[in-house]
Amino acid sequence: MLSEKTKQWIDERTGYKNFFHAIFLLNFPTKRRSRWQFIWGGALVLMMLIEMVTGALMMTVYSPSEASAWGSVHYMETQVDLGWFVRGLHHYTAHMMIVAIIIHIFLVIISAGYRKPKEFIYWTSLMIGGVIIGLTITGNALPWDQKGYWSYQIETSIAGTMPVIGSTLRSLVVGGSEFGNLTLTRLYTIHVMALPVIAILLFVFHMALIRRERLRTAKIKEANDDPNVDFELDEDDPVKDEITQPYWPYQTTRTLILTLVLTGIVILQIVVYPSMKNQHLQVGIGDWEEDLPASAIKLEAPADSAFPFVARPEWFVRFLFELRHMVPKELEVLVTAVLPGVILAILVLVPFYEKVFGEKWGQRLAVAVYVGGLLIITGISWYGIKQERSAPDYALDRSQELAYAARASWLASKNGVPPEGPASLLLNDPKSMGPLIFAQHCGICHTWNGHDGTGHFIMEMKDGKKVKATPRASDLAGFATTKWIAEFLADPTAPKFFGHLGSSKGGDAILNGDMSDWAKDYVGPEGVLTKEDLEAVAALIAREAKRRDYEQPSEEVIQRGISVFSGADFKDKSGKVVEFYGYCAQCHAMKAGDPNEEGGGAAPDFNGYGSEKWLTDFIRKPGGEHFYGEKNIMPSFEESKLSKHDINLLVKWMRSEWQRPTEEK
């Protein structure tokens, strides 16, 4: 600590004491006694300082470009010491500042802090509130994740509907007509330079006005109390009852207490809120929970329109989003432009209410308008959130959004972010893209565990209603596994397999074709094949796929499978070697099951059945001579329909081939 003599020496040469007094109002008199009512403005200043410090720390890591923004924030969250805490403090403090400015303006109104000569103090409070909202909106999109990206889409689309200046304003903040690198550059510049400079100027101007007003009040009070001055206040003048106290330590202490309480709430949000937010969602689709627990996800997936994400605006503009959906398209401008303008005008004109209605009723009107407006806005927002969360697919949609977030985060931690950008983490991942490709190309006919691969049911219109569609082809979950093949052999006509083919053109020939007849003749209580026979030949065929989850059976089981497939040395249920006329090699070719290679030709070739090459060739040309030939009813997927990249991802996903956290899998 410096001695008083040293402090004096420095102050004589720098005037630092006056500087700090001016900045922190240390020696300014408070209005009357220090009061809890007047602490929110000071807390806002301190929270702005927190934002500036944490923002500066984040600037040392953050990189504003499409290719690097998400990765730099992920790096901050996972690799930088306390990076998650700094980012969380910055993020949640920004939202807390919006709450604080709402309360601050309310307290200003109920204390008539807008009355002459304090109109500009009130108006600068409103402007500071607008800048805080602007800082929060521009900051939320900077990670360039799905949440920020889609939120900013909504917010800029709302701005774009404003008459006359809408398209120009949107183009200015977006950096053109499309979102891209320029959008991030603009956002970053607005967020770290333009708005902070405006905020600082407004804060300084606001504090200067407060200082001026308090000094003026103090001088009036001094003049009133000084018997040597010919001045006396009216009996009902509130200044008459002023008991001035210095800002420090009385008001400052209370402000610090509130700031600590608000910061404590923010820290609680950082620690608890992610778990609370995600715990009620189901993440069971596709073993997503293996990548990262949903409760640990703090960053959404990288921004990319290829992956589904329900756009949701931030809570403080949610009411505009909901109102847009409540009015016809042609009236949308009333909600997005006229309404905010009306709200702003109502707030700006508060100091003039008393000119029209008198002090008593003017203030009451101001309070009623402010509180009533907040209640209406809160009600509309709450209604929208409740409606969204009660939607049938909300839990599923949100779970999948979290699943992509978990997957991207794990892949980035494991492999790093590739140079082409974070979106490629998922775009090149079979586990992420496979279900989407399946739903787009295969889900029209096939199912995957009863749904379209993404968890959604395939729907169709019937009698004017949207109902769950009946699949027209087999369910392919577990395709080419021993279990799937054994179930198919036991009953090819089951709904899971050929059961609904009859509704397709040419499908009846397959439903009631040779394979179905074979099962009727040789499977079941009257058939010569036992359950063990089916499982043995299924294991033999499944071996061709070389899937990662294939469980190698014993040599005895393999030999039994070969016997069923080729008909050689076939033993009936009593264990007696008999002639077996239903052997597979009559129609299917497979060297492993038919050493003499005498069979095959009438049905799909089983050499390499279910392997990556077999599946790719089959999807490309199911009517090929090695597959269904003339019996084929499945469409071909040439490269013009399904790219090499996509079919590779689809096949790998169908075979459960993707990078996993656990090596043994």
What does the model show?
- Helix 4 packs across helix 5, helix 11 packs across helix 13 and helix 12 (332-348) runs antiparallel to helix 13 (350-389).
- Among the domains are: 27-224 and 238-277, Cytochrome Bc1 Complex, Chain C (Up-down Bundle), CATH 1.20.810.10; 482-609, no CATH class.
- A hairpin with a 2-residue loop joins strand 1 and strand 2.
- 56% of the residues lie in helices and 1% in strands.
- It has a two-stranded antiparallel ribbon.
- It starts with a helix and ends in an 11-residue tail after the last helix.
- The model has no long low-confidence stretch (mean pLDDT 86).
- The chain is mostly helical and 665 residues long.
- The protein contains 23 helices and two strands.
- The radius of gyration is 35 Å and the shape is elongated.
Give me some keywords for this one.
two-stranded antiparallel sheet; Cytochrome Bc1 Complex, Chain C; mainly alpha; elongated; 665 residues; heme; 2 strands
